[in-house]
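== Folding task for one protein ==

=== Format: two labelled lines per protein ===

==== Paired sequence and structure tokens ====
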Amino acid sequence: MSFTDEILEHFRGKIKEVTLITSSGGVFEIVVNNQLIYSKKETGEFPDPKDIITIMEQLSS
């Protein structure tokens, strides 16, 4: 299952859209409601979808 599919499956019906914006240089950032919640550029590591789901759940609390 892809990263996007895991997030959409977990938040079924609660997420309006997921948009992939291509870039270069290994940049991978996740923005929710205009708030940066993860940056591979800062951490140097690709995130685990479960960690991103946890962060997203905390934002909605």
Notes: The mean pLDDT is 89. The first strand starts at residue 29 and ends at 32.
